[in-house]
Amino acid sequence: MSEPLTALEKEVAQILHTKLEVAGDSASSAGVGTEEEALPDPQALPQDGDKLTDMKKCERALKNRLAAKRSRDQARAYVQRLESNVSDLLSQNESLSQLLALSDSRNALLLAENKNLRRDICQLR
């Protein structure tokens, strides 16, 4: 993903950077780049049991937060597309309703004309 970092992704990168510094790892990313760059390499994390577990939990929580945000954004975009489709279909329905009303009135006129012509034919016989 080569898009610029969102505020949430920057926050994730900053938190991970801080966590890595606290854990004694000074070779963390600068918080700039892609989402993958913002998350540390699991092999680069300290091997201390509790710290490692805490780091993995933190990383998982942050990844989960990013995934949830992407999911919400996708859901919003989907709803917007549906609303747009509804608007288009309502407009099309209105146009077709007007066309139907016009066709019905034309049909009524033609039926009346046909009735008059049949009556005229009967009178001529």
TrEMBL record:
Pfam families: bZIP_2
Coiled coil, from the record: 72-99
Species for this entry: Guillardia theta (strain CCMP2712) (Cryptophyte)
Entry keyword set: Coiled coil
Protein's UniProt keywords contain Nucleotidyltransferase: no
Lineage: superkingdom: Eukaryota
Annotated stretches, region: Disordered: 23-52
InterPro entries assigned to the protein according to its UniProt record, in alphabetical order: bZIP, bZIP_sf
GO MF annotation terms: DNA-binding transcription factor activity
Listed SMART domains: BRLZ
Domain BZIP: 54-96
UniProt name for this protein: BZIP domain-containing protein
